[in-house]
Amino acid sequence: MIERLENLWSQYTTVNVPELKGMRLRLASSRKNASILLFPPTQPVGELRILSNIDVHCGWECPVNLRWAKGLNIDEQSETLRDIQLKALENALDNGQYPYLWWFYNEKFPKKRAIYIDSVGASFIKLNCVWQVVYNCRELGTLVGAQGHRGEAVDYEQLPPNAYFVVMENEAAARRHSAS
C-alpha cells in the first residue's frame, strides 16, 4: 500500500500541483481508525489517559472533501486513516481536487492544553469547559493541509511536526480564535 500511495503522491505533485514536486509524502496512520475522526464523538468514552501539555492550533474542515469521505461507507473496525488517504489521493487525481479533508492554521502563539485520550483512541481537550476532539497532524498525514502562509501551493505541506489542532466551524472562526 505504501508503494501505491507514494506513486499516487508522485503523480499528484507532478501533474496536479507541480509546486509540490519533490515534497515527501506524509503517511497517515495505519493503526488509527478513520471513523473516530470522520465521525468524532462529542465527548470521551470510558477512561481517560492524560498526555502532557501540547500546543494546540486551530483548523477547519474542507467541506467538499470531508463530505465525500463521509459518503464512502467505511467499515468502523477496519478502515484506517491510511486507507482513507489512499482513496483521497485517488479522488484528488481523478477530480483535480486537493486530498486534504482538514485545513490547519499555524498560529504564532498557540495555547498549551492538556491532551486526553479516551478508551477508543480519540484525543480530546477541554476548551471553554467543553470537550473538543483534537486532531494530530502526524496521524492524518496528507489528509490535512496547512493554511495561513503566503497562499502558495508549497505552503500546504508546511506543518509543524507532531502538531495538534481543534476543528472550528469555518476558516473565519479559526482565524478569529487564533487572533484572540
Structure description:
The structure is a single chain. With 180 residues, this protein is of the alpha+beta class. It is built from six helices and seven strands; from the N terminus they run H-H-E-H-H-E-E-E-E-H-E-E-H. The chain has helices at 2-16, 34-38, 63-70, 81-95, 137-140, 171-179; strands at residues 49-61, 102-105, 111-117, 123-127, 130-136, 144-147, 164-168. A five-stranded mixed β-barrel has the order 1-3-4-5-7.
Structure, briefly:
The protein has about 180 residues and is of the alpha+beta class. It has helices at about 1-15, 35-40, 65-70, 80-95, 135-140, 170-180; strands at about 50-60, 100-105, 110-115, 125, 130-135, 145, 165-170.
Helix and strand topology:
Blueprint: H1 2-16, H2 34-38, E1 49-61, H3 63-70, H4 81-95, E2 102-105, E3 111-117, E4 123-127, E5 130-136, H5 137-140, E6 144-147, E7 164-168, H6 171-179
Parallel strand pairs: 1-7, 2-6
Antiparallel strand pairs: 1-2, 1-3, 3-4, 4-5, 5-7
State the distance separating the first and last CA atoms.
42 Å
Which band does the percent of strand residues land in?
Answer: 25-35%
Q: Write down the Rg.
A: 16 Å
What is the average of the pLDDT values?
A: 87
- The quaternary structure here is single chain
Strand tally is: 7
Judged by helices, strands and strand pairing, the structural class is alpha+beta
Low-confidence stretches: none
Helix and strand pattern: HHEHHEEEEHEEH
The geometry reads as globular
**Share of residues in helices:** 25-40%
- Strands of the biggest beta sheet: in what spatial order? 1-3-4-5-7
Q: How many strands, which pairing sense, and closed or not: the largest β-sheet?
A: 5 strands, mixed, barrel
Number of helices: 6
